[in-house]
Design a protein that fits this description.
By secondary structure, the protein is an alpha/beta fold. It has 11 helices and 13 strands.
Length: 352
């Protein structure tokens, strides 16, 4: 059973979902070590998490390390006996993965292989892996259940799928491993303090950070790709989930690894089970922010699916987890973060 002195290693803990999960772990009484190469994240996030955690902030240790550096990673495992690992670290921009597939395979796969090797060598065999709904490819029906056939439509998605397969193979080869694969849908929102949130480098790949940058005046308009889908308003439909719900999903997954001796290697969707269209999301954000979001209507993007949302029945039953927040909460918290930090953790100069 997890005790308050359980030591958890979080890879990619300075990133968007990682930082929110680290904060929830600290609040729940865990000792947390973060490993992050700060390739697409900021050390400021770690500093702010420490501040938000108050007295529990002292239980956070940060190591600036690339997972592919086996010697450095081995050093971290030698200095602390970890009870479990939550693995977020990885590059995650779909478009970039199509342009630079080897960068993604090198970073995401070699990083994960090195992590799993070092975990095995140190007898740490409990893992929560940050997977993605991209492993369903373009689902032919909705909602997506965990039993759907797996296929990925781009190199980023393929790295997630290959890491999932590696985890399944490791468990088959050694049943002392316990692994939970969390397939998230579309994480949005921010901590209600507005002190930590999503801070993508360069052009955002996802809808919400893009809307946010238009709202704070960093971009002139939002381009809506595809207005002729067979949906209520013609725009694509996705399952958006509040980052705090997602963070809580990792805590309950971790607790299950400590409590359930028969876990094996198991996948769970984390979503709300509801679809929201692009235009519905824009309207909710306009309401939360009081800002008008100028739109540019464009044709469909190749490879974009029409409607994707999660079946959450398995997570509700198996993890006793259910999303608590709706899109109004997500937009309120996202705007609170954006209005206080229009340039994320950076400054107007870093936006160039």
């Amino acid at each position: 059973m997890a005790s308050s002195s359980s030591n958890i290693l979080v890879t990619g803990g300075a990133g968007y979902i990682g930082s929110h999960t680290v904060l929830q772990l600290l609040n729940a009484g865990f000792m947390v070590s973060v490993v992050d190469n700060l390739d697409n994240s900021s050390e400021i996030a770690i500093k702010r998490v420490t501040e938000l955690a108050g007295a529990k902030g002292k239980n956070l240790t940060f190591h600036k390390i690339d997972l592919r550096d086996k010697k450095a990673l081995d050093g971290v495992f030698s200095s602390t006996k970890f009870d479990a690992v939550i693995h977020f670290a990885g590059l995650k921009a779909v478009g970039e993965s199509v342009e630079k597939p080897l960068l993604y395979y090198n970073n995401n796969l070699i990083g994960s292989i090195t992590l799993l090797e070092v975990m095995g060598a140190h007898g740490c065999k409990k893992l929560v892996f940050s997977s993605s709904a991209t492993v369903y490819g373009w689902p032919k029906e909705v909602p997506c259940t965990e039993e759907f056939p797996l296929s990925a439509a781009n190199p980023y998605g393929r790295t997630k799928l290959i890491i999932e397969e590696m985890c399944r193979d490791i468990y088959v080869s050694d049943c002392s491993w316990k692994i939970i694969l969390l397939r998230y849908f579309n994480p949005v929102g921010a901590h209600p303090s507005g002190y930590i949130g999503e801070d993508p480098r360069g052009t955002p790949n996802n809808l919400m950070p893009y809307i946010q940058q238009v709202a704070v005046g960093r971009r002139p308009a939002l381009t809506v790709y595809g207005t002729d889908y067979k949906t209520k308003d013609g725009t694509g439909v996705r399952d958006y989930i509040h980052v705090l719900d997602l963070a809580d999903g990792h805590i309950v997954a971790l607790q299950k690894l400590f409590k359930d001796s028969n876990i094996g290697c198991e996948a769970y969707n984390l979503g709300t089970g509801k679809g929201t269209s692009v235009l519905e999301m824009v309207a909710a954000f306009e309401k939360a922010s009081g800002k008008k979001i100028p739109l540019v209507m464009a044709g469909r993007r190749p490879g974009d699916a029409e409607v994707v949302y999660a079946s959450t029945a398995k997570a509700e039953k198996g993890l006793n987890w259910k999303a608590k927040y709706g899109i109004d909460d997500m937009c309120r918290d996202q705007w609170n973060w954006a209005s206080k930090n229009p340039y994320g953790y950076g400054s107007p100069e870093s936006d160039k």
